[in-house]
């Protein structure tokens, strides 16, 4: 019987107490020190204890782009970032559109053991937007897929989207939509606005996201299904989702850390001049007004959760002219720090709110059992310990991810993940992988 | 240290006037039978052209040669670039060869900014995507000043596909710095969404703007824009935004007509207008060499560049 005692942890930022873990399950929370017997002890004095973080949106790149990331390195990055479960997006090569591929990814996650890997299944075969993938086979596989997404591409065909929403009801699935009207975003490079005009880059208008979200909310209501909106990036999208929720429709949404902190001004001004593709991401960085609306929506629950959209790319895919560069940023190892900066330091969320938006709600949306439970006796011991008192400069070279495309290089961010426990087993201790 | 000319916005009013005044002096050299100056002897200027643009390339080539610089023309077609070499690797190659200046034309907006991260020499933007073309704006201002005697206070109408025009962007910035009043004229589809934040006026009505203009600059309109629904047909575009004889007659007597070339005669400009004595189109080409000489001279001849910007 393995016993671990976490001493003096501030659970959800509350008063210091002890957490006793036996055989991967929380046995007691409180003054447990006396009853621990021969326990391995983690001194958590000054640290905040959160339920293990859950990411609904991670690109692990395996199979196919192992030069950018693998299940191993991606889950190491996740553990370092305080995550105990990640949802691996389907846009791999081959695409995760069959039971075989999702089971392979799921098994790799189990083998490495840094965090649980819950594969997301493609909505359409090959992400081609023509024919439904075998959603039921993926749902019934060992990977037990519940989240389906063509992320990277929008399911733009209204009939196909309607059918997908209807079909997944049979196994309590959810369609996670990458909301991007394709015709309105042909060749799009940056948010359409002042900066796209000045820089002469093709604009990605907010309406291309908002129009799809509005349509999908209506479709979800019509067929009585669940819709999840990926990486919401505009103030207008927030208003539409707020309206859909006010109707009682089963619509959830996520926001990325980078859309909570950065704006398209980064494209015009950076330490290495304008047009630095490190800021190229889809959907694009928006305006300050959008950032403030997204923060407010995350605070009031209109947006349910933070999801990283961790998108690793090798150096050569970013050291290019803007238009030629790949879209995406890594984010697993900085997510909690960015949320602390954007939401906690600003007084918009307390640590209980962070636990809700980064653990409880994403686990519930993904129907992920064993994750996203409050730190109480009887719950699986998925625990993240972080030190909110330190501020450190982001160093890409120190990251566990195989890729280095972080937009926060050199920025000083608060908070540091000190330890992560997956079912009572430390995956990270003293900030280092175990 | 300032060492590049990537955006017209890098130039202060004083910088811009220095280029124009230097060009004026150099113009006298161009009028001599022996056109060459020894100023940049031993310096290497690379013309790195990722897009076909014979007129801009030979203009820079002539400018560099008249200053006695060694010129290397690096055309992307048929070179290592067409075999997939990245801009960075090309830049490192040019750097290793000791290029003092790289004149770059590229289809991607911002490519000169990226290049400037990878070379020590000066970067001169010879047109990047739909972003900027600062030496075109300088030669346009120079041509205006030669014809009209001044730039400050001139009312300049820039007409056509502003959305995709690097010439329009550079001209708005430069002419604003020099105190001219710019009005952009285009169908709403060919204007950027936030054009109201630019330092200029905007109009959809060419006929209303023409009588008030001292300079009318017509932009090239690419026919493929029609297929993307920017306008219904070439005929309709020409009727609403083309400078034909009737519209030309509405200009005041001293007003001039400019075009950066190459022209679509019969589309944005009629042949009669293009060939009229009040058109500066051929002068613009000659002035292009002079102004580019001034830019290369000011960036390369001293120990410190006299104009330009850093990243």
From TrEMBL, chain B:
InterPro entries (UniProt xref): Asp/Orn_carbamoyltranf_P-bd, Asp/Orn_carbamoylTrfase, Asp/Orn_carbamoylTrfase_sf, Asp_carbamoyltransf, Asp_carbamoyltransf_Asp/Orn-bd
EC numbers: 2.1.3.2
Superkingdom of the organism of origin: Bacteria
Residues where L-aspartate binds: 83, 166, 220
GO MF annotations, alphabetized: aspartate carbamoyltransferase activity
Keyword terms, alphabetized: Pyrimidine biosynthesis, Transferase
Binding residue positions for carbamoyl phosphate: 55-56, 105, 133, 136, 261-262
Reaction catalyzed: carbamoyl phosphate + L-aspartate = N-carbamoyl-L-aspartate + phosphate + H(+)
Positions of the Aspartate/ornithine carbamoyltransferase Asp/Orn-binding domain: 152-299
Residue ranges of domain Aspartate/ornithine carbamoyltransferase carbamoyl-P binding in the record: 3-145
Pathway: Pyrimidine metabolism; UMP biosynthesis via de novo pathway; (S)-dihydroorotate from bicarbonate: step 2/3
Pfam families: OTCace, OTCace_N
Family: Belongs to the aspartate/ornithine carbamoyltransferase superfamily. ATCase family.
Protein function: Catalyzes the condensation of carbamoyl phosphate and aspartate to form carbamoyl aspartate and inorganic phosphate, the committed step in the de novo pyrimidine nucleotide biosynthesis pathway.
PANTHER family associated with the record: ASPARTATE CARBAMOYLTRANSFERASE, ORNITHINE CARBAMOYLTRANSFERASE, MITOCHONDRIAL
Subunit structure: Heterododecamer (2C3:3R2) of six catalytic PyrB chains organized as two trimers (C3), and six regulatory PyrI chains organized as three dimers (R2).
NCBIfam families reported for this sequence: asp_carb_tr, PRK00856.1
Protein name listed in UniProt: Aspartate carbamoyltransferase
Organism annotation: Microtetraspora fusca
Gene behind the chain: pyrB
């Amino acid at each position: 019987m393995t016993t671990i005692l976490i001493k003096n942890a501030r659970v959800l930022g509350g008063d210091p107490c002890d957490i006793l873990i036996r055989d991967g399950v929380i046995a007691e929370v409180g003054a447990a020190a006396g009853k621990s017997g021969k326990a391995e002890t983690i001194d958590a004095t000054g640290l905040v204890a959160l339920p293990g973080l859950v990411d609904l949106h991670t690109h692990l790149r395996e199979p196919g782009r192992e030069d950018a990331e693998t299940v191993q390195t991606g889950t190491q990055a996740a553990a370092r970032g305080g995550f105990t479960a990640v949802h691996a997006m389907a846009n791999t090569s081959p695409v995760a559109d069959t039971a075989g591929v999702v089971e392979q990814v799921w098994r790799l996650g189990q083998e490495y053991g840094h965090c649980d890997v819950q594969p997301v299944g493609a909505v359409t075969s090959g992400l081609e937007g023509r024919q439904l993938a075998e959603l039921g086979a993926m749902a019934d596989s060992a990977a037990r897929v519940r989240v389906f997404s063509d992320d990277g591409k929008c399911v733009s065909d209204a009939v196909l989207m309607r059918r997908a929403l209807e079909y997944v009801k049979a196994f309590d699935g959810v369609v996670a939509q990458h909301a991007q009207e394709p015709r309105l975003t042909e060749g799009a490079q940056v948010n359409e606005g002042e900066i796209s005009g000045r820089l002469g880059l093709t604009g990605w208008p907010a309406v291309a996201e908002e129009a799809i979200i509005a349509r999908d909310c209506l479709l979800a209501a019509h067929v009585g299904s669940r819709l999840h909106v990926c990486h919401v990036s505009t103030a207008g999208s927030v208003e539409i989702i707020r309206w859909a929720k006010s109707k009682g429709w089963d619509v959830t949404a996520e926001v990325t850390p980078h859309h909570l902190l950065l704006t398209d001004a980064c494209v015009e001004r950076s330490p290495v001049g304008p047009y630095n593709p490190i800021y190229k991401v889809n959907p694009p960085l928006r305006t300050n007004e959008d950032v403030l609306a997204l923060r407010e929506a995350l605070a009031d629950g209109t947006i349910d959760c933070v999801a990283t959209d961790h998108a690793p790319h090798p150096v050569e895919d970013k050291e290019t002219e803007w238009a030629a560069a790949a879209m995406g940023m890594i984010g697993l190892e900085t997510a909690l720090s960015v949320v602390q900066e954007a939401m906690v330091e600003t007084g918009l969320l307390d640590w209980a709110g962070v636990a809700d938006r980064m653990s409880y709600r994403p686990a519930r949306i993904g129907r992920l059992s064993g994750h996203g439970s409050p730190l109480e006796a009887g719950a699986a011991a998925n625990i993240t310990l972080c030190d909110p008192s330190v501020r450190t400069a982001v160093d890409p070279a120190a990251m566990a991810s195989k890729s280095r495309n972080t937009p926060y290089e050199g920025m000083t961010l608060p908070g540091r993940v000190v330890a992560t426990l997956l079912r009572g087993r430390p995956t990270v201790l003293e900030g280092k992988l175990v | 240290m300032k060492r590049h000319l990537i955006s017209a916005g890098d130039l202060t009013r004083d910088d811009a006037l220095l280029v124009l005044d230097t060009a004026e002096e150099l113009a006298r050299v161009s009028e001599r039978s022996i056109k060459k100056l020894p100023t940049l002897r031993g310096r290497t200027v690379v013309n790195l052209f990722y897009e076909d643009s014979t007129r801009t390339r030979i203009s820079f080539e002539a400018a560099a040669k008249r200053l006695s610089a060694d010129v290397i023309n690096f055309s992307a077609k048929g070179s290592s670039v067409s075999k997939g070499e990245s801009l960075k690797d090309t830049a490192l190659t040019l750097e290793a060869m000791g290029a003092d200046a790289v004149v770059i034309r590229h289809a991607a907006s911002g490519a000169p900014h990226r290049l400037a991260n990878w070379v020590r020499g000066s970067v001169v933007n010879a047109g990047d995507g739909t972003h900027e073309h600062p030496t075109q704006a300088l030669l346009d201002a120079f041509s205006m000043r030669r014809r009209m005697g001044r730039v400050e206070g001139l009312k300049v109408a820039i007409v056509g596909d502003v959305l995709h025009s690097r010439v329009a962007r550079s001209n708005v910035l430069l002419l604003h710095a020099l105190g001219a009043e710019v009005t952009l004229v285009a169908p709403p589809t060919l204007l950027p969404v936030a054009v109201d934040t630019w330092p200029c006026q905007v109009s959809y009505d060419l006929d209303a703007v023409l009588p008030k203009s001292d300079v009318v600059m017509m932009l090239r309109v690419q026919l493929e824009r029609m297929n993307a629904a920017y306008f219904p047909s070439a005929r309709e575009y020409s009727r609403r935004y083309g400078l034909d004889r009737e519209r030309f007659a509405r200009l005041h007597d001293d007003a001039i007509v400019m075009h950066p070339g190459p022209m679509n005669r019969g589309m944005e400009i009629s042949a009669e207008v293009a060939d009229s004595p009040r058109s500066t189109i051929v002068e613009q080409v000659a002035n292009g060499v002079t102004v580019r000489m001034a830019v290369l001279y000011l960036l390369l001849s001293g120990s410190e560049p006299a104009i330009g910007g850093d990243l």
